[in-house]
Design a protein that fits this description.
alpha+beta, cell projection, 2 helices, single chain, two-stranded antiparallel ribbon, Flagellar basal-body rod protein FlgC, elongated, about 50% helix
Length: about 140
């Protein structure tokens, strides 16, 4: 049983790390949502985190499958040209380019990552309590 609990700790810890990276990526996207540039090539592209499960050879039933960040990829969405001839970053035609970032979508991603992070903290707390109770049973 304790081996299963330790695998559970490993799985939850890996999920905490992955969700933390996801939260940082969302924060970066939100921080750059209003940036402007002269050309589409210079424009910030939103980032997305790709997760991957890690198969454990010692766990043939796949009861616990840790997760890792496989990659952080740029969005394929094209920058949005906006006519702002007085903007300091405007090109010769008076356009600036802004990232195609949906603040609403990024906020939803942030809420999802936060909830997943909180759920994994709860899993770890519950596993810790079970281990403590197991130790107390052995003392009585």
């Amino acid at each position: 049983m304790s081996g299963d609990l330790f695998r559970l700790f490993n799985t939850s810890a890996s999920a905490l790390t992955a969700q933390s990276i996801r939260l940082n990526t969302v924060a970066s996207n939100l921080a750059n949502a209003a940036t402007a540039s002269k050309t589409p090539e210079e424009t910030y592209k939103s980032k997305q985190v790709l997760f991957q499960t890690i198969l454990d050879k010692e766990d043939p039933d796949r009861a616990s499958m840790p997760v890792r960040v496989a990659d952080i990829v740029d969005s394929p969405a094209l920058p949005i040209p906006i006519y702002e001839p007085n903007h300091p970053q405007a090109n010769a035609d008076g356009y600036v380019f802004r990232p195609a970032i949906s603040v609403v979508e990024e906020m939803a991603n942030m809420m999802s990552a936060s909830r997943s992070y909180e759920a994994n903290v709860e899993v770890m707390n519950t596993a810790r309590q079970l281990l403590q109770r197991t130790l107390q049973v052995g003392q009585n």
